[in-house]
Design a protein that fits this description.
Blueprint (H helix, E strand, L loop, with lengths): L3 H7 L11 E6 L3 E7 L19 H24 L4 E13 L8 E12 L2 E10 L2 E14 L5
Antiparallel strand pairs: 1-2, 2-4, 3-6, 4-5, 5-6
């Protein structure tokens, strides 16, 4: 299992916008699984349905997207050594929200690489809570040059 430092060594996201707690599995053929505990003390729950707190769908997608970024980073590191590019979302499609996610839930995310075309990675992600699908989304990421390298 990867620690927060191992995660932040792979992707540019940092607290308070780091939405992955741990990598639970990685397969070289393009599959990764991560987890995120949805903490009840997040400030966003004070305003997002305070009487019935629900994790915003856009942030559930962000958990999936960061998991995809980790998959890409691990694949690039395996192929090329140190990564100098930053993954950015280029397309979001077919997002389906099937059930709400609440404070105290643990999101289990699986992202699968579907295809690579040039420097664009096409992926599909699923976020589950309690073994039941909460979110599914197709998305793509491109690797762009880091600002540090300009």
């Amino acid at each position: 299992m990867a620690t927060e430092k191992q995660i932040t060594d792979l992707i540019p996201h940092r607290s308070p916008f780091l939405w992955v707690d741990r990598i639970t599995s990685f397969e070289d053929e393009g599959i990764i699984t991560t987890e995120k505990l949805i903490n009840a003390d997040l400030d966003l729950f004070k305003g997002h349905y305070p009487d019935n707190p629900i994790m915003p769908g856009v942030l559930l997608c962000e958990i999936i997207f960061q998991t995809g970024a980790l998959l890409i980073a691990k694949m690039v590191l395996a192929d090329n050594g140190l990564q100098k590019n930053v993954p950015v979302i280029t397309r979001i499609e077919r997002a389906k929200f099937k059930r709400p996610v609440h404070p105290g839930d643990t999101a289990v995310v699986k992202v699968v690489l579907k295809e690579i075309v040039s420097a664009v990675y096409f992926l599909k992600g699923t976020l589950k809570v309690g073994g039941k699908t909460a979110v599914q989304v197709g998305f793509s990421c491109a690797l762009i040059k880091s600002l540090e390298d300009e």
